[in-house]
Design a protein that fits this description.
By secondary structure, this protein is α/β, with parallel strands linked by helices. It has a single domain, classed as TIM Barrel, CATH 3.20.20.80. The protein is built from 13 helices and twelve strands. Helix 7 packs parallel to helix 9 and helix 11 packs parallel to helix 12.
Length: about 375
Amino acid sequence: MSDTKFFWGTSTASYQVEGGIENCDWAQAVQEGKEPVCGKTDDHYNRFESDFDLAKRIGTNAHRFSIEWARIEPEEGVFDEKEVEHYRQVIRALKDRGLEPFVTLWHFTLPTWFAQSGGFLRKDSAEIFARYCEYIVTQLGSEAHFWITMNEPLVWLNNGHWKGEWPPFVRHSILRTIRTLFALVGAHRRAYRAMKKIAPTISVGIAKHNICFESNNNPFNKLLSFCAKWGFNHFFLKKIKGNQDFIGLNHYILKRFGLPSPFPKTDMGWDVYPKAFYKVLMELKKYNLPVYVTENGIADSTDSQRAEYLKGYIGALMRAKRDGLDVRGYFYWSLLDNYEWSFGFARRFGLIAVNYETLERAIRPSAQTYTEIINTHGEKPLS
């Protein structure tokens, strides 16, 4: 059993909580009436210190947040040092409170200039993305140890380039979608090498959303489940082999082929099924890398399910740890209620409720359950 410190944390993403970001592709979609208005959302950009005070009150010892690429590089090749300094203060505010920073460099939104010039279909997209990541680590690499290049690349690809429901609102052919997928793989690999060259001792990974796929004994359904699992959960991880120091796991969804789903539902309509979490965790054992659960949580506006959700899903994580998975952290999504992409503010994931008229914060009763779990296990490895 490893003596590695276990991280109990929460997660946020820049566009969803900061407010005031108007130079990215999602903001442009809002301006065109294609997505719900975001505005100043939680105003976390100005309130991060008091929000981190609340995170500390809950009892966490880590926090995952994202840097907004459009703030850092508002024009191609032009970097804003004032925004770099802002994120330096964010990192230091976390560390001052004993919260280990996990820094994500790209969480879905793209600078307008990059999106309008082709995004990851640009021939030089890997070079462009790696340049941005390298710049950040050059400036802030001494401030944080854990770095995540990109969040849920296949979710972004599926919603924006296959279904056409997110920016850039296109429905590409299979071949063009695959081309974009390989561009993302190349962008991560190049960014990883650039970051490690600048700061060899930092730890770099991705946040990968994996779905639990199950099927009945029908051969066709078993084949569908196998192919979905391989393509969605493992293809990307295999392609970046040797270019990640850990795996960040995001998990929310169960997909069953030929089987009913008689489980409680979240406000997103997703199944509450802790066994699914255990299964996707154990799928990662073969990679022989440390695993951090970088997102897992429930949309629950009445706060009636969240406490039991936390008990069930963290219980599944404990089981995976006992069964040999090197899992070293759990980050609940989300610290705050936030702008939930195409759902606007209609879904509430936060351990902390936000009144969007006054921006007043209130720790939800279910957060006490998370506090009790943390206090039970402390910073020791789960047993």
